[in-house]
Each structure stands twice: as structure tokens, then as C-alpha cells.
């Protein structure tokens, strides 16, 4: 991918993919978007001491870094698993400024440098397992309490919002598990409902009217 670092409106970095004409995060603020979608309206809703997370799209590592911060602040144990088809290079991730915004015991660079396909205890409260593969090719016997669905938008990668991919997300979740995403497209919401999710719309981050929280009710 042909990518360049940009500065979003809250001062935090994101990446612009020149081939797509799309950014990894909202131009209104990368950190504030991720914190609103995946922390405030995602993992913070789960009332468990140990929380198993599956992230679609490790990307810049921002969601993982914010989740590590959440674990430390809230005395939670997080088992974090993430999928990425096109990992950042060292020359890219070492320039990202998220450690200026997110205070954690380890740096963003450390998260990126953890070896692939090895479950590593980053801290006593947070473990990370990364898979470098396409989402379509990913499978696991593990079960999760929450799925962070943070892939590129439907207009750019519609295949990642297919019934098949969303069904796999449902299957990976524990009962009452949460699927959370920044998107709120009618077609996607209908697919989630057809699969069996209970879909809730809520206020989106700055610059976006709504987002979706879907629950696997059994």
C-alpha cells in the first residue's frame, strides 16, 4: 500500500492510503474516534474482569494501545487478538505520535515489534496475539467477548462487509458478545440483523452522526 502520515484535527496522526484515497481514521481526530467507538461504546460496556478481544484490522495499533490503557485504568485483564493483512513498516509506525495522547506502560512501537503468531504478555494485564493474514483467510477456535470491526469502509472494501465475514464475526463471539464498528450503513445493519445480531445505533464520534453496537443475543 502507498501510504503517508497525516495529522488529524485532534493533533493525532493517521495514515492516508493514496491508492484508495481513504484514511485509516476520521480526519476529525484519530484518537478521539477510536476512543469513542471501541473504548467508550465498546469494551467499556463489558462487565467482566477478563475480556477477550478480536480486532479486525490492527492497522496503526491505536485500538490496541487504547485498550491497554483501558486495562490499566480499570484493573481489567485483556486477551487481545488482532488480524492485519498489510502491516505497517517500522519507518511508518515509529513516526506515529499516539504515545503523546495515550499513556501506557509500553510504547506503540513495542506493540508493533511483537512477533507475529506468538501470544505475548505485554504487561500482567494485557496479552497480544497478532496474525498477519487476510481477514477472509482467518479462522480460530477461540471465542471472544467483543469484536472491534475496524476495516476500511464499504465503499472501499465491500468484500470485508459481506454476509460471510459478518457471520464469522458472530460465530467467534460468546453469548451476549458485542460487535462494534464505526459504520452505520443500512445494508450492513440489515445483514447483521439477518445473521442474528440485535443492532443498536448510537451517536458517532465527531464528524459522524451514528455508529453501531450489535449484540449476540442467545
Question: Which characteristics define this entry?
Answer:
single chain, 218 residues, alpha/beta, Rossmann fold, three-stranded antiparallel sheet, 6 helices
- Multimeric state of these chains? single chain
How many separate domains make up the residues?
1
Q: What does the radius of gyration come to? A: 16 Å
Spatial strand order of the main sheet:
6-7-5-4-8-9-11-10
**Overall 3D geometry?**
globular
CATH topology: Rossmann fold
Describe the sheet with the most strands.
8 strands, mixed
Please state the average pLDDT score: 96
Tell me the strand percentage band: 25-35%
The structure class reads alpha/beta
Helix content: 10-25%
Order of helices and strands: EEEHEHEHHEEEHEHEE
CATH level 4 superfamily: Vaccinia Virus protein VP39
Distance between the termini: 40 Å
Total DSSP E strands = 11
Low-confidence stretches: none
The CATH architecture assignment turns out to be 3-Layer(aba) Sandwich
**Text of the CATH class:** Alpha Beta
GO molecular function: oxidoreductase activity, acting on the CH-NH group of donors; tRNA (5-methylaminomethyl-2-thiouridylate)(34)-methyltransferase activity
Pfam families: Methyltransf_30 (PF05430)
InterPro entries: MnmC-like_methylTransf, SAM-dependent_MTases_sf, tRNA_MNMC2
GO biological process, one term: methylation
Amino acid at each position: 500500500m502507498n501510504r503517508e502520515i497525516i495529522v488529524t484535527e485532534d493533533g493525532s496522526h493517521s495514515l492516508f492510503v493514496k491508492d484508495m484515497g481513504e484514511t485509516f481514521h476520521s480526519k476529525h481526530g484519530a484518537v478521539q474516534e477510536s476512543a469513542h467507538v471501541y473504548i467508550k461504546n465498546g469494551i467499556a460496556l463489558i462487565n467482566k474482569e477478563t475480556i477477550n478481544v478480536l480486532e479486525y484490522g490492527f492497522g496503526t495499533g491505536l485500538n490496541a494501545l487504547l485498550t491497554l490503557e483501558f486495562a490499566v485504568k480499570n484493573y481489567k485483564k485483556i486477551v487481545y487478538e488482532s488480524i492485519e493483512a498489510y502491516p505497517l513498516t517500522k519507518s511508518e509506525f515509529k513516526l506515529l505520535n499516539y504515545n503523546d495522547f495515550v499513556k501506557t506502560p509500553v510504547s506503540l512501537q513495542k506493540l508493533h515489534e511483537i512477533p507475529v503468531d506468538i501470544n505475548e504478555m505485554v504487561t500482567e494485564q494485557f496479552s497480544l496475539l497478532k496474525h498477519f493474514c487476510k481477514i477472509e483467510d482467518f479462522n480460530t477456535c477461540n471465542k471472544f467477548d467483543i469484536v472491534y470491526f475496524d476495516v476500511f469502509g464499504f465503499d472501499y472494501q465491500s468484500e470485508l462487509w459481506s454476509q460471510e465475514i459478518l457471520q464469522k464475526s458472530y460465530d467467534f463471539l460468546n453469548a451476549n458478545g458485542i460487535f462494534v464498528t464505526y459504520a452505520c450503513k443500512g445494508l450492513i445493519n440489515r445483514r447483521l440483523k439477518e445473521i442474528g445480531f440485535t443492532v443498536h445505533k448510537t451517536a458517532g464520534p465527531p464528524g459522524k452522526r451514528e455508529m453501531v453496537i450489535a449484540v449476540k443475543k442467545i
